[in-house]
Amino acid sequence: MSDRMTVHRDGKPIYDIVMEENYDRLGQEVASLSVRDRRLCVVTDSTVAELYSDTVIRQLEPVCREVHLFVFPAGEENKNLDTVRDLYEFLIQNHYDRNDMLVALGGGVVGDLCGFTAATYLRGIRFIQVPTTLLSQVDSSIGGKTGVDFDAYKNMVGAFHMPQLVYTAASSLLTLTEEQFACGMGEVIKHGLIMDADYYEWLQAHREEILARDLSVCEQMILVSCRIKRDVVEQDPTEQGIRGILNFGHTLGHAIEKLMHFHLLHGQCVALGSVAAAGLSAKRGEITMEEALQIREVFFQFGLPISIADFELSKEEIIAATKNDKKMDSGKIKFILLHRIGEAFIDRTVTDEEMNTCLDWLMGGSDEDERI
Ligand SMILES: NC(=O)c1ccc[n+]([C@@H]2O[C@H](COP(=O)([O-])OP(=O)(O)OC[C@H]3O[C@@H](n4cnc5c(N)ncnc54)[C@H](O)[C@@H]3O)[C@@H](O)[C@H]2O)c1
Ligand SMILES: O=C(O)C(=O)C[C@@H](O)[C@H](O)[C@H](O)COP(=O)(O)O
Ligand SMILES: [Zn+2]
């Protein structure tokens, strides 16, 4: 299946999201960006380089002047300014100028880091996203949020910088580990919960095909998620308001990710944060407790953690970590809650006591029932 959609800003088309089964059309798509006399630097991590860099470079070489490859070690712990510095050095040594372009080949770590380098090198050069994880195909490659972590502070240094193209080859899902695939489902389920109750139902109805990575079902899912994310970022590209709902599950999620020093993956932390936010939405009487319990079950069934009982984390340190993060907005914590399944809202009134109560829910074992 082949599909595409356009992302607009202020009503003007900015870039296309292209969905293909493999990389056969990548060269053609990149050629349409006028790169014949340009250098292209493929930026990727050590795992993805082994799997896909040869195929991608074979697509790019015939359509541009020269292709370079920059590889850094895989893992969130390398999404930092040291790696950005190495990449700046590489670009300078190879005489990259403002007409040249970067190609982010990999998951969200590669996309965020490469996008940030593109946003800042020579005050901004073009880049494209070639996302290879489910998470990056449905979320991080779209919308222009780029950045790196600073110490363990998530995405603390960054810029909004839109890609010129997002090219997804769905078959790259087949080489992901189960754990990494599940991480993408964390953001996918988030999309249903915040914007589209029918999609949330559809995900549950197609769970077996999704987990078996039936490519036609996965492509349908990626397209719906891309549409949801596209529709939100078009309304609010720089997160002045509504885009904040894409942060559902991230207030506590980022705090847990930081405290675990990235030993828990982003999608896993989003799942934990979402379970807690659903619990709090129920506690506030926005959704029913049955719905909150069912949300927790859905994350669990897609292979995501729903308990932090086995980690050495206290509720107090998690709450303290939320206050030390970008989620503080004019002295108030920014929390995303659900009015109902399929409709989220931004709340700045969540108290420490409420966070404490909803964290109780994550302290139980995964087989334990309601503790809230
Ligand atoms: N910018 C945004 O809007 C946005 C949105 C969501 C998440 N993020 C960021 O994205 C990051 C998480 O992204 P991620 O989950 O893709 O992690 P990741 O980029 O670390 O990729 C996960 C792992 O899978 C490997 N991998 C990638 N593609 C593969 C493939 N096709 N086959 C086998 N292995 C493959 C990678 O080498 C890595 O080890 C976090 O840093 C998060 O903050 C950003
Ligand atoms: O695109 C957005 O906006 C999001 O919030 C998507 C999130 O899934 C993503 O993790 C994002 O990087 C979080 O951004 P941050 O500004 O909270 O660091
Ligand atoms: Zn996220």
Automatic annotation (TrEMBL):
<dbReference type="InterPro" id="IPR016037">
    <property type="entry name" value="DHQ_synth_AroB"/>
</dbReference>
<dbReference type="InterPro" id="IPR030963">
    <property type="entry name" value="DHQ_synth_fam"/>
</dbReference>
<keyword id="KW-0963">Cytoplasm</keyword>
<keyword id="KW-0057">Aromatic amino acid biosynthesis</keyword>
<keyword id="KW-0028">Amino-acid biosynthesis</keyword>
<dbReference type="InterPro" id="IPR030960">
    <property type="entry name" value="DHQS/DOIS_N"/>
</dbReference>
<protein>
    <recommendedName>
        <fullName>3-dehydroquinate synthase</fullName>
        <ecNumber>4.2.3.4</ecNumber>
    </recommendedName>
</protein>
<keyword id="KW-0862">Zinc</keyword>
<dbReference type="InterPro" id="IPR056179">
    <property type="entry name" value="DHQS_C"/>
</dbReference>
<feature type="binding site">
    <location>
        <position position="154"/>
    </location>
    <ligand>
        <name>NAD(+)</name>
    </ligand>
</feature>
<feature type="binding site">
    <location>
        <position position="266"/>
    </location>
    <ligand>
        <name>Zn(2+)</name>
    </ligand>
</feature>
<keyword id="KW-0479">Metal-binding</keyword>
<feature type="binding site">
    <location>
        <position position="250"/>
    </location>
    <ligand>
        <name>Zn(2+)</name>
    </ligand>
</feature>
<feature type="domain" description="3-dehydroquinate synthase C-terminal">
    <location>
        <begin position="184"/>
        <end position="328"/>
    </location>
</feature>
<comment type="function">
    <text>Catalyzes the conversion of 3-deoxy-D-arabino-heptulosonate 7-phosphate (DAHP) to dehydroquinate (DHQ).</text>
</comment>
<keyword id="KW-0456">Lyase</keyword>
<comment type="similarity">
    <text>Belongs to the sugar phosphate cyclases superfamily. Dehydroquinate synthase family.</text>
</comment>
<feature type="binding site">
    <location>
        <position position="145"/>
    </location>
    <ligand>
        <name>NAD(+)</name>
    </ligand>
</feature>
<dbReference type="Pfam" id="PF24621">
    <property type="entry name" value="DHQS_C"/>
</dbReference>
<feature type="binding site">
    <location>
        <begin position="132"/>
        <end position="133"/>
    </location>
    <ligand>
        <name>NAD(+)</name>
    </ligand>
</feature>
<keyword id="KW-0547">Nucleotide-binding</keyword>
<feature type="binding site">
    <location>
        <position position="187"/>
    </location>
    <ligand>
        <name>Zn(2+)</name>
    </ligand>
</feature>
<feature type="binding site">
    <location>
        <begin position="108"/>
        <end position="112"/>
    </location>
    <ligand>
        <name>NAD(+)</name>
    </ligand>
</feature>
<feature type="domain" description="3-dehydroquinate synthase N-terminal">
    <location>
        <begin position="71"/>
        <end position="181"/>
    </location>
</feature>
<comment type="pathway">
    <text>Metabolic intermediate biosynthesis; chorismate biosynthesis; chorismate from D-erythrose 4-phosphate and phosphoenolpyruvate: step 2/7.</text>
</comment>
<dbReference type="Pfam" id="PF01761">
    <property type="entry name" value="DHQ_synthase"/>
</dbReference>
<keyword id="KW-0170">Cobalt</keyword>
<dbReference type="InterPro" id="IPR050071">
    <property type="entry name" value="Dehydroquinate_synthase"/>
</dbReference>
<keyword id="KW-0520">NAD</keyword>
<dbReference type="GO" id="GO:0003856">
    <property type="term" value="F:3-dehydroquinate synthase activity"/>
</dbReference>
